[in-house]
Amino acid sequence: MHTKLTIVLVAIWLAGLAGIAAVAQTDDVAVVVSEKNHVANLTKPELRKIFAGEKHSWAGGQAIRLFVRAPGAHERAVLLKLLDMSESEYKKYWTAQVFRGEAQLEPVALFSNGMQKEALTTFPGAIALVNLQDVKPGMKIVKVDGHSPAEREYPLR
Amino acid sequence: MRYTRTATFLLVVASLSHAQDAAPSEREIIQQLVQQVKTLQEKVTALESQQRASGPFNADTTPQPASTPTPQAADNNASPASLSQELHELRGIQWRGFGEVDYKVLNQRTPELGTYGFVPGSRGNFYIGDFDLLLTARINDKASVLSEIAFGEGEAQTFGVDLERVLFNYDYNDHLRMSFGRYHTGIGYYNRAFHSGTWLQTTADRPLVMEFAHDGGVLPTQAVGLSFTGSIPSGKLGLNYIAEYGSSDTHLQNLAEAGIDDEDNGNHVNVGLFARPESIPGLQIGGSIYHDRIKDRSHESEASLGQTIVNGHIVYIRHGIEFLNEGFLIRHAYQQSSTVYNMPAFYSQISRQFHRARPFFRYQYINANQGGFLEEFVLRHGPSFGVRFDFNDSVAFKTQLDHTMRKGQPDLNGLHLQLAYTF
Question: How many angstroms away from the CA of A152 is the closest CA of chain B?
Fold first, then answer.
């Protein structure tokens, strides 16, 4: 009887640990691209250049389409941290980028990860940042500096 | 039995301990849920505003045939932009406006005619400078159009329209990006970074050496032709190039008397190289060489001369710091004689953001040779300082004091107030 109880408690404890581990990973933000995109790894400086609009096309010449989350989302905070900008600086920066002709358009800001998934499906050159737990089938996760989300060295969280 | 009880007790204690550790995570989840609710509220607001904004254009309610969506249609369906983007986009054309209201006063009765926006005969006055409309449209993933239309103020509140830029852009890849049309020449950094939008500038005006030719500046700031730019495979050095070939026929505003000097330029070549090293984000180091042939009509006999402009710049923009430094050597070599004039110029500008305020300091220097093509600029140099205050992300107020020392003329002091905005 006591053995059974012990087993049940151990199982509950392990399940609790697994749950905590899952919650601990929620801060990680995955870099996702279309499944048709061949890119598998990006360095953090490359990622910064992409989301700063300094890099315009993928290796094969496919134009990069930026999709970002609207202000308030966790992914937005990670994006601003990556670019080392405040929300205000980000807006001014993109106004200037378009004005200078360095970018065709400001990155499209979406209000949900579902929209980001649709964008990735529609545009082969699309790239977005998505909370790891919100990554859906059809989104291809790209490693950053050789690390996958949930790894300890992963830089985007 | 005792061991079993002890083990059970330890497991329960451990579980409770982890439960306590998990509590903050639950709060985070709640915060995320609250955030999602806020996001949904923003989305509803955006959709409502979008519906209101697009009201007048909904007249065509003819149902579209169900077919495979075009990329543009898919874009509209799958990727509704943010509210601000929606408000700046009309049928695929994005637009943005820049405007300014200025008050400038100088401590001299006879202002220089070429001093931007200054009306002859008055000591201090209001003016609106350039009212700038920027229109951009994506044709496809690689091609786009950009146009910048400026409504500029002339004398006695007369206004003229200038097509500052109109460009057909084609981005083949990161190494080759082409533009065809009228552009701002890539001589140095400032001209391509700030164009005509004073709201983008920290200071109230452009550095004197970078002033537009039609406003009294010395450089051929605009041209019609071809422009190529792109990155050069160089690893962490981040090298980029720029190459331009075109006609920069310049009408130079005469500083000393009414009228203009028509430089009647030939086609120019401009090549530049700049690095944005990965190791120091925000840093740009580069230079350019520009060459064309112009005619000097300031003397009785018209003279042809070769104009070469060499630029070097170091720019750092990051962590709220803006540090701009550019040096120029403008060389005029007369063909009919061995006369050569070298005109050095530079400016250095530094500013730092403190919340909404950005104090700035600039020092500029121009030294034109006596008897040379641009002799009316003489030697002039001096500091400017002031502060830019951003009321919000669209409206800024700038206060600027200038002190300019001029060779053979009294020092010039100026106060420049400017309300700059974008919409």
Answer: 18
The average pLDDT across B341-367 equals 95
Class of domain A29-144: alpha beta
Encode pLDDT of B4-43 as tens digits: 555 555 444 444 444 444 444 555 656 666 667 667 766 6
Contact A48 B21 (CB under 8 A): no
pLDDT band at B229 (very low <50, low <70, confident <90, very high): very high
CB-based contact B362:B347 (threshold 8 Å) = yes
Question: Which pTM value belongs to this model?
Answer: 0.75
- What is the arithmetic mean of pLDDT over B183-210? 90
**Spatial distance between the Cα atoms of B373 and B313, rounded to a whole number of angstroms:** 25
* Distance between A23 CA and the closest CA of chain B, angstroms: 7
What is the model's pLDDT at position A137? 86
Q: Other CB atoms closer than 10 Å to residue B310's CB: what's the count?
A: 18
Which pLDDT value is given to residue B352?
A: 96
Q: Which CATH class is domain B173-422?
A: mainly beta
